[in-house]
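Q: Here's a chain of 645 amino acids. Please give me its 3D structure as tokens.
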Amino acid sequence: MNALINWLDDRTGLKKLIHEALYENIPGGARWRYVWGSTLVFTFTIQVITGIFLWTAYSPSTTTAWESVYYIQHHMQAGWLVRGLHHFSASAMTVLLALHLMQVVIDGAYKAPREINFWLGLILMQIVLGLGLTGYLLPWDQKGYYATQVSTEIMGATPVVGPELQQLAQGGPQYGHHTLTRFFAMHAGILPGTLIAFLVLHIAVFRRHGITVPDPDRAPAATFWPDQVLKDGIACLAVLGTVLTLTFWHHGAELAAPADPSEAYSAARPEWYFLFLFQFLRFEWVEHQGLAFGAIYLPGALMAILAAMPIIGRWKAGHAFNVVFLFVMIVGIIGLTGLALKNDAADPDFTAAVRQAHEDSVRIEELAKRPEGIPLEGAVSLLRADPKSQGPRLFARNCAPCHRYDGHDGTGRKVTFKEPIVEEVLEKQKDGTQKNVKKIIDYKPPVEVLATATDLGKFGSPDWIKAVITDFKGTFSALENVKDKDDIKKVAESSKHFLEGEMAEWSSTHKNHWRTDPKNEQALNDLVAFLYSQGQRRGATDISDEALKRGRQIFETGKLPVGEFKSSCVDCHSLQPIGEDKLLGEVGVGPTLTNYGGDRWLREFLNNPGHEKFYGSNNTMPAFGERLTEKELDLLVRWMVGDYE
């Protein structure tokens, strides 16, 4: 080895290079407080190595970006591990950056002659944050797509050059494919190259002036090797252990559903290290001042104070100010981050949106794992054609104004209304005159809107059918919320008539028949099983033939094991059993129950609820066949009947 080293040293000067790198003098000896710079270089090295592996499988386009990240996460050998290391080491780098900055300011390592090195460090901090910002978009998922739009809007708020800067970042006036490719170029090429260049300068200037030691006489002087290297190595190992733990705990980094510009995404939030700015911009007084104030002017002023620290710190009082200022700023950032998390946790709409986003991410994974795989149009086309994903959204937009789905709008949100506060103001007209006009000045806190039609969360299920039979009025009790106003007088009258009609009376009159004997309870279950089987929904095929036979007999005759009904089901309802031409009952008295609760019945009903085989002239529900496209109607119906596996 000595011969090899001497040969290399003779030709390259290796020994002198190693001596320069390892035998730096450390007055006062090695200390744990000096490890932060090395851990930062270590985490950046992890980023570079894992980034190269990710680069080999990543395809930056709007129809392949998410798909390639999905491949990395689920198919590439150890891809989830590489991606998780890359993601969580980026977060670790932000924390270590803050700790390193605190150590530098507290130790006064920004003072002369180290001002330039401090400014180089601030530039490196900006580059690191830029890497986090640009990397957030690259998976091209809903979370990154909508969160990154905020950053480009902030660029647009920059004075004088804002619109041009935004177009430069976006790759044009629209947010889309060129935005992705430009962010990728920044994240994988320009910013890392710039960071390496400034890091070399930073270390070179640091070595010129040496380490700043507050108390050099605390211990004998030592060299970087081996004492400080040991402490740095242990610190880097701790960072690696933390990052690996987070990676294994989460099985890599999160991948939300693919970006879909046609869908609103209220669960979008920036990465945790930008949450403080997000929360700050939400304050009413900040919103009143404008986006530029909250996102550019004030943060710019704080950065200016940081940059001025070497000048302010020339005096003892100035150094104390710098330490206090940094401490207050960090506490403020932590406080705003905590407040953002607290507000989000207390926001039912946000938690519902997060829950729906999680369901979408699980669902797209299921769809992508099918034998057919992901089509050429991209993974987003799978979600757009998926009843389980689109059904809740269609229900929320079209049905939730009247109905509920297990108490919410289908997507997990409560249906609320914000009543406007209106006052009269004097406004100047075009002709120069003045006129009192009513203007909305604010909104009252949102209140939950009462449903005016039945909850459809269990529609068509055995529980639903049993509830209609045994407690008809209770099942449709939401109709009582319809107020008798002039504009909906017909609806109110129809609702009242429905709740006091023949079926409501029959249900109330016969509710005790089911309780008179255990055999009657079984008969109820048989009747429910028969009606449920006619819908041909999932699970209906598991019902025994004996139960179906008994249920049909009760439907036709009204006879129970103990006693009988005054009128049977066929006296009001008609039904054509599956596979038969025979029609039980007559059409026109009550709704036809052929395929009741199944896709065909529901599709026909939504298309024309006023048809005579449903509710005829008493119907007040609009025909959704006129409001929805054929595809939308199909997605809604298939979701409601559970036909999406």
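Q: Can you summarize the key feature?
A: The longest strand covers residues 434-443.
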